[in-house]
Specification:
This protein is α/β, with parallel strands linked by helices and 261 residues long. The chain has nine helices and eleven strands. It starts with a strand and ends with a strand.
């Protein structure tokens, strides 16, 4: 097990937006989804890749995104801040990409965190086999579970995968009592109508979900596409703000869901 490695593209410390308290977020490289609006395009390919910034100085224009890391390295970085986790009720969050794409390493890492008494969370697409998902979440305290669309055909159109496997895993996590917050990225023209809001509510109530976090579309990742020489199809789409989603949020509240933005 000590020989396990994974491709990691960032370890972000002192995060306060990816679970309770002060957290360290470990970003796994590689994702089974290819969301057209993805704000982390550098996370999609599972291996290292080159980023080129034409505006940077020659010595720093080229950057390799993604490093091969072993369990010892990640644990060493995480444990440096254990006092902050203990004092703030924080911990570690696995993100990406999708950590389950490198599930053997991710599961081994989660077990080590739990052995050290560290609260664990994951940000996930939920796209994995039932067997992998079940084993993965056994050592996860909180799941931040992204749902991109309630309609499977539209989900495929915008993300390149259907959503049946995702919904089944959502139901599994809720049924066994794992703390789950469903997160919905609200994307203009994709899932942003009030009809879409009701569609999500119908799906989530059937799955047994109670907590929802709406994520308004933003343009924070736009420049990354040019650095990776990738096309960004949402460059002319206006960002959404909390006030744009007041009526959208109200639909969730009317359906008895605890909804935040």
């Amino acid at each position: 097990m000590n020989n396990l490695t994974a491709c990691i593209f960032n370890i972000q410390k002192y995060s306060i937006h990816d679970g309770p308290g002060i957290r360290t977020v470990v970003f796994f490289k590689g994702c089974p989804l290819k969301c057209l609006w993805c704000s982390n395009p550098e996370s999609q390919y599972v291996g290292p890749e080159v980023s080129f910034d034409q505006e940077a100085q020659p010595k720093s224009a080229l950057t390799i995104i993604g490093d091969t890391r072993n369990l010892s390295y990640i644990m060493s970085e995480v444990m440096k801040d254990k006092d902050f986790y203990d004092e703030s009720g924080g911990g570690v969050t696995l993100s990406g990409g999708e950590a389950m794409l490198q599930y053997e390493f991710a599961i081994a890492l989660l077990k080590q965190f739990k052995d050290c008494g560290i609260h664990t969370a994951c940000e996930t697409t939920g796209y994995a086999t039932q067997e992998i998902f079940q084993t993965f979440i056994e050592n996860v305290d909180l799941i931040l579970f992204d749902i991109k669309h309630y309609d499977s055909q539209k989900h495929y159109e915008y993300t390149n995968v259907y959503n049946e496997k995702i919904i089944q895993n959502l139901k599994t996590a809720i049924r066994q009592g794992t703390d789950v917050i469903v997160r919905i990225p609200v994307i203009p023209g994709i899932n942003s109508s009030l009809k879409d809001a009701q569609g999500f509510c119908d799906l989530l109530k059937a799955a047994g979900a109670t907590k929802v976090n709406l994520l308004p579309f933003h343009q924070f990742g736009q420049k990354k596409y040019s650095l990776l020489n990738k096309e960004y199809k949402f460059k002319d789409v206006a960002q959404l703000h909390e006030e744009d989603l007041i009526n959208y949020k109200e639909i969730f509240k009317q359906n008895g869901l605890n909804c935040t933005i």
